[in-house]
């Protein structure tokens, strides 16, 4: 899911509810294509065979989520029954109090930065005690997080964040989504598309952005000259009449993992291999830190340095230069390929080739490291024929008019995918990078 920089959030723009509005499974023909399930995935084939050619499936298994720097990731029905939504549980505590709440079904998103919680998922006690951040002039601080298909609108508040056995060293800024009336949305100043301020809109109770950046906007919103035009943040005197404002880094919605006392230089998303026909669920592990513990070594993973936002801007697909990114917050692969047949209105925007297909993209880092990634594509109509499956490794859709290649959650199955944080804004030397082992 993309936020704040190039308006390329692709997680929700084509959500499919796997238990609603599904057509009957297409008649299967041919054979082959299925890879075996795994002990970490609670499902096998959907019961239909897949004809055509698919690449060999990666086979990495997640480590057990038993250490303090780990937490289980679940792909299943989740909060609202949206497919391919990886979720974890997050605990919030009001600063300086013992008032805390654990919130389930928070989407793991390596394509955005910062923690956002749907206000409706907070109990009354938490809603009352989480302090709202104020601007230097005393106005309420709110944020509009803009995505390709819509936006989230809500206040910036602070909370101590615990995930697994790790807790932030102090309270960090988060966005509480939908806690402000729709009438306060700045006219012409927020994102296009519809508001995504409920769990139903998002497909989850919140989003934890753990991509390569430490802050969701950074220098653009901290600098008054650029903030006047591009800031995501708004000063709302008395909670209304909201206008764009500059916000210091300290008050911007922040990647909470970077605020842990240890294991704070990156994350590893580990998902199990699953059948090419999909699975009812899949259980993986989110590991905090890279090279900080015995369970998070980089090892032989191929490493690509990226721009500030985790993008591989010199990648090549079908002979064209594209911006590629490894984004667990997108529920499919999304790219432009006119040779692939698009689905009809039932699955508008997804690809529905008559036989399984393989496509290759050359990923290129700023460090000149290159590698070819092969992905499989199966007709969305075939995959969605079984309304009990929520995990898919070969679902793909179209990015209209964008020179982008979104390696969404399907790419993560059977791989260990690393996102190293850009530590330079806080005096570190680590440049942002992504890596994977399969």
Describe the structure.
By secondary structure, the chain is mainly beta. It has a domain at 70-259: Acid Proteases (Cathepsin D, subunit A, domain 1). The protein has helices spanning 124-129, 199-202, 219-222, 224-230, 380-383; strands at residues 70-75, 86-93, 100-109, 113-118, 140-146, 150-163, 166-167, 172-177, 194-195, 206-210, 233-236, 243-244, 266-270, 282-288, 302-305, 312-317, 320-326, 333-335, 357-364, 370-377, 396-398, 404-407, 416-420, 433-437. It has a six-stranded mixed β-barrel with strand order 2-3-10-4-8-6. The longest helix is centred in the middle third of the chain and has 7 residues, at 224-230. It starts with 69 loop residues before the first strand and ends with a strand. Residues 1-48 have low confidence and may be disordered. Pfam families: DUF3443. Residues 1-27 form the signal peptide. InterPro entries: DUF3443. Keywords: Signal. Residues 37-53 have a biased composition (Low complexity).
